[in-house]
Fold this sequence. Notes:
Largest sheet: 8 strands, mixed
Low-confidence stretches: 43-60, 621-726
Shape: globular
Strand content: 5-15%
Helix content: 40-55%
Radius of gyration: 27 Å
Mean pLDDT: 80
Number of strands: 12
Amino acid sequence: MTSAEKSTWHNEYDPYALPDFETEFIDEDDLRQFEKALNAPEASPLVAINDWRPIHQRVRKPQARRKAPKRSKDETREGVLYVVLKWPFLIIVLCWLTVLSIAYLITRLYIYLYEQLVTWTGERERLRRALHATNNYADWLKAARALDAYLGNEKWKKQDEYAYYDHLTINKVVAQLKKVRREAEKELQNGRASSSDVPAIEELRSLLEACVKNNFVGVENPRLYSETYSGTKDLVQEYIDELHAALQVLTNSQQLTYDDKYRHFRHLDTNFGRTALCLSGGATFAYYHFGVVKALLDNGVLPEIITGTSGGALVAALVATRTDEELKQLLVPALAHKIKACHEKFPAWVKRWWRTGARFDTMDWARQCSWFCRGSTTFREAYERTGRILNVSCVPSDPHSPTILANHLTSPDCVIWSAVIASAAVPGILNPVVLMMKKRDGTLAPYSFGHKWKDGSLRTDIPIKALNLHFNVNFTIVSQVNPHINLFFFSSRGTVGRPVTHRRGRGWRGGFLGSAIEQYIKLDLNKWLKVLRHLELLPRPLGQDWSEIWLQRFSGTITIWPKSIPSDFWNILSDPSPQRLARMLQVGQQSAFPKIQFIKNRLKIEYEIMNGLQRTSLTGGRALSPLLSRRLQGTDQENANGRPLDPMVERLDQALPDRQPYPDKDLRNGDGPRYTEVPDYSSTDPSHPKTPGGRRNSVIEEMRRQSAVFFDDAEMYGRDDTMMSE
Length: 726
């Protein structure tokens, strides 16, 4: 083994090279409080009026195992016909679903053989193998361009016309942007020739307000990136680059006041929206997310807003509580040594399942999960440490309450590891758990009246609507690894960075007939599942309605589908070895590489808007996050040495920055609904809404703060709910 290979092994497979590998972040007192909350009796509608007048009620003997709740008569609308026809109709539909499933598998097998025998042959197959053998994005991009050149896709890039966007409008906008930007740059250097003319910088601002919008004339349609392995049409790329250059001119202009620029960038931020990374559930399939995150991080396109559900919540918690430097050291095969959720032997978990109805022990999971969340870190503390916005989906154990999306706005004091466990509490695998919150003195207490919560994938695996509501997210990057969904993913006309090679990208996968049959069977399966759900015919194993795990939305603007192998299903409830995690990291990266150019173009504009907001916020004396303050302090020091005010402005022309934090705004000054004020722990003013220690001193103040998220500055924040789907 050479010295270079030894160094690589040490960095990637040595567990002691991981940051904080031997650190026990969790406090034993926190675990005891969690255990106490789990063992507390269920909330009852009868409570004592006060401590001196207890309500006497009959005490039942505790049962070793609770029975699953049954449907009541009013819930099922029972009648003669319902009783007579329920089971015959259910059996007939289930048999038909079985026939459709078999037909679907046969169709997919036919399409696979068709592609292997007709498409992937000769030089094309050799180039594809070279593409899949790469380990980094630079090598992948080189191989992808070689494959595009062989297939003739470069010619498609040079043609402006395309049915999925308005190329005529884009041509006009690009020409106007170039003209007005050059005039604005001349005015900045030489001054205005005539005071009677409208300043070029004002024309540029008006032009940007007209075209900086989400999916402007279809320029963010995923189809534009689905005809080639690398990049998109030259006209689209020219438009993105020119838009970015114009935003830089506006940011650096001295002809506009800081208040005017601040309001302008606020409007652009609202119209353009924000990007979020969504990590699905999927048990141990979720470890593919590590590779996806690594690919995005290494190429500077990891979004600030991250959401995770079930297994994806564990990965999202690790990402949101670590800095970029720490993540680069953690996302290696040696991380498998910290994944020990399934360390128990077969007899132990069978005994527990028979006694409690759960495969895993909740307290053991709390201890194992705490390392990934840096102990009892809250959502607000994680945001203050890294600048990333973590979201975790949790479903209440009762069927009536709505699903929550826990984050630093909706539940700032909630402890992350409790939300991660709750989001992974699949019935039969882990019993519902209590969320915990951190009090002013640092101790833990039950959150939300001690209600219990369970797996978020049961209802909202990908919480697109909630992300749009809280953070104006209208561009989602979904890493989808759910095994029951992966089997049915099929893009008949290609997907981002993975075009159809049949008929040089103009055909259908498996031919038109094969794609048509696949689409029909999948829609028919979905239809009959909806029929069973709406007629309330589906059984409820373990007291849970399981229909939503099939019928909810699982994709986003960009959907990344890491390719699983049969052994993943056998190891679905097993801890990965370093070798298996290394393969999952590699596959996760490979699945993300085709999407990076699309994400780069999107974030190139989004980050420049954020850069303009940051600089005007700093000059205007507005509140900034601690992370942003530290970055700008370092930037000021560089500026004193003769460098530009923000080095990211230079780097954006070549590559995106590692990470650009979003500024916080003061809600009390009416700065907008999508930002939260950073806690001022040092304030001693009794009228200040926060007390030393970082906790708000009244329930009314907390309600006022959260209501501002929805109602403050409403006229400025109109929202376009149109979502693209891949």
